[in-house]
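Deliverable D4.2, example record:
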Amino acid sequence: MLRMAFACLLLACSPTPRAKESEPVQVWLDPGFLSYHFKDENYRQDNWGFGVGVFIAPEHGFIAGTFLNSNDERSHYAAYHWRPLGWNPAGVSVRAGLAFGLIDGYPNTNHGHWFPFVLPALSAEYGRLGANFLLGPAPNNRTALALQLRLRVW
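Output generated by the structure prediction step:
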């Protein structure tokens, strides 16, 4: 996982064309997720961990991290976060898009090994504070809504 996170960081820091050269690369840290499951089962709702997001433009970012998932197992993830739609109501940057990536740690999916995911995502940022809202659709009504609070450190 460390190698994958390092590769994402290298890719994000490599020279690439950006929408506007005046927009600097941004680095965000997060403490994991809070989740709400639509099916009343014994799922973990506080999914603490550590994550990093590197955004080379408002529309393009790379995210990676680890957290305790809803099954009380350790998960790791790495993804490309594409946010093509954007609004700025009252000075808050709101962006919508998808996160495409790989995740592990769910014993009921691929026996806990890595598998691909695509999640709808909505981001809101104000200054150095941010939040991601992700919808994790799953079969058998295990669908969850996740909140990820973020802090911009660069």
